[in-house]
C-alpha cells in the first residue's frame, strides 16, 4: 500500500464522482493508483480548477475498469472516510519549497495527476490541513474553558504525537470535533435556517454541526455534507420535519409544524443561509439524499 495525491478539479474532462470515484487513464496511472488500495490519498485542486490546494483526505477501496472506456479506470473511494481539511493547504511552503519532496523546487505546474508520496509528506500535509483555526467558532459548546487561557483548554490535543496519522484519521472523536469546527467556521457560527448567531460564555457558538447524510449511512465528514443548525432546528432536520430543496428553499413536512412556530424558527425568506465560500456550500447530492430518505414531506 502507498499514500498518494490525486488531482481533482471541477474543470476536468474525466468522469470524476467526488466522494465516490476517481476517474483516470490506465496507461499513465494504473500502477500508481493500485498501490493506494486500502490506504489514504489526499486530494489537490489547482488554480484552474478552483485553487483550494490540498483540501481533503480519503481512503481508496478498489480499482475497477471503466465499462465504457477500455483505456480508463476508476478508483472507488470509501465515502464515509472522506474528511475535508480545516485549512486549504497551498502546494508551496513559503521560504522552504513544496510540501511534496518529489516535486521540483520551482513554482512551475506539475502535470502528473497521481503522485505517490511518503508517509512523512503525508503527515506534513495532514498536520497543516487539519490544524484547528484559532477563532471563537472553534471553541466547543460544552466543557471547561477559561477565556484568559485562550483556546488551549477548549480543545482536545490536536493529532496526538506518536500515533500514525492514518489511525488518528479513523478516530470518531477526532473526526467529529474537526467536522464541527469546519461547519461552524463555514457558517460563521450562525444557524443556516434561523439566521440566529447565539453565543455563550467566552464567545462559544451555540450552533451545532449537522450531517446531511448521517455517519451511520456513510455520510462523509466534509463541510459540503454539513449544515450549521440551532438545537431545535437540528432536531427537526434529523427527524425529517424539514429539509432543503435544490434551490435552497426550506421545505417543511405537511402538518408537521404550525405556521406561527415556523415564523419564529426560520428566516423570513424560508431559504437556506449559505456560506460565502463556494466550496463550503451543501452539495445537491447530499440534500437530495436527505429529501428522499429522511424528509417526511
Indicate how many domains the architecture comprises: 2
Topology, number of strands: 13
Largest sheet: 7 strands, mixed
- Quaternary structure classification: single chain
Q: Low-confidence segments, ≥5 residues, pLDDT <50?
A: 144-157
Global shape? globular
What does this structure look like?
With 297 residues, the chain is an alpha+beta fold. The protein has helices at residues 26-35, 119-129, 165-168, 172-186, 231-238, 259-265, 284-293; strands at 3-7, 21-25, 40-45, 53-65, 72-77, 83-89, 92-93, 97-98, 114-117, 208-211, 226-229, 242-244, 250-252. Strands 1, 2, 3, 4, 5, 6 and 9 form a 7-stranded mixed beta sheet that branches. The longest helix has 15 residues, at 172-186. Residues 144-157 have low confidence and may be disordered.
SSE blueprint:
Blueprint: E1 3-7, E2 21-25, H1 26-35, E3 40-45, E4 53-65, E5 72-77, E6 83-89, E7 92-93, E8 97-98, E9 114-117, H2 119-129, H3 165-168, H4 172-186, E10 208-211, E11 226-229, H5 231-238, E12 242-244, E13 250-252, H6 259-265, H7 284-293
Parallel strand pairs: 1-3
Antiparallel strand pairs: 1-9, 2-5, 3-4, 4-5, 4-6, 7-8, 10-11, 12-13
Keywords summarizing the entry:
13 strands; alpha+beta; 7 helices; 2 domains; 297 residues; ph1033 like fold; seven-stranded mixed sheet
Brief overview:
This protein is an alpha+beta fold and 297 residues long. It is built from seven helices and 13 strands.
Amino acid at each position: 500500500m502507498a499514500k498518494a495525491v490525486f488531482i481533482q478539479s471541477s474543470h476536468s474532462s474525466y468522469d470524476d464522482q467526488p466522494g465516490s470515484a476517481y476517474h483516470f487513464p490506465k496507461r499513465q496511472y494504473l500502477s500508481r493508483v493500485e498501490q493506494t488500495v486500502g490506504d489514504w490519498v489526499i486530494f489537490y485542486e489547482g488554480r484552474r480548477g478552483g485553487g483550494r490546494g490540498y483540501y481533503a483526505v480519503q481512503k481508496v477501496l478498489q480499482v475497477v475498469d471503466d465499462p465504457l472506456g477500455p483505456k480508463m479506470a476508476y478508483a472507488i473511494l470509501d465515502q464515509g472516510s472522506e474528511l475535508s481539511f480545516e485549512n486549504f493547504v497551498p502546494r508551496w511552503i513559503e521560504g522552504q519549497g513544496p510540501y511534496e519532496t518529489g516535486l521540483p523546487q520551482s513554482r512551475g505546474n506539475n502535470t502528473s495527476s497521481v503522485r505517490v508520496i511518503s508517509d512523512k509528506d503525508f503527515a506534513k500535509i495532514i498536520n497543516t490541513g487539519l490544524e484547528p483555526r484559532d477563532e471563537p467558532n472553534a471553541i466547543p459548546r460544552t466543557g471547561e474553558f477559561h477565556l484568559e487561557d485562550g483556546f488551549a483548554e477548549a480543545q482536545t490535543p490536536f493529532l496526538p504525537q506518536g500515533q500514525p496519522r492514518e489511525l488518528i484519521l479513523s478516530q470518531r472523536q477526532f473526526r467529529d470535533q474537526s467536522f464541527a469546527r469546519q461547519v461552524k467556521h463555514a457558517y460563521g457560527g450562525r444557524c443556516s435556517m434561523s439566521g440566529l448567531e447565539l453565543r455563550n460564555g467566552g464567545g462559544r457558538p451555540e450552533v451545532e454541526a449537522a450531517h446531511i447524510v448521517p455517519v451511520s449511512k456513510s455520510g462523509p465528514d466534509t463541510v459540503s455534507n454539513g449544515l450549521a443548525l440551532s438545537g431545535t432546528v437540528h432536531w427537526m432536520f434529523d427527524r425529517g420535519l424539514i429539509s432543503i430543496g435544490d434551490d435552497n428553499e426550506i421545505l417543511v413536512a405537511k402538518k408537521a409544524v404550525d405556521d406561527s412556530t415556523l415564523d419564529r424558527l426560520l428566516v423570513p425568506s424560508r431559504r437556506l443561509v449559505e456560506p460565502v465560500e463556494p466550496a463550503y456550500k451543501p452539495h445537491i447530492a447530499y440534500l437530495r439524499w436527505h429529501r428522499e430518505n429522511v424528509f417526511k414531506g
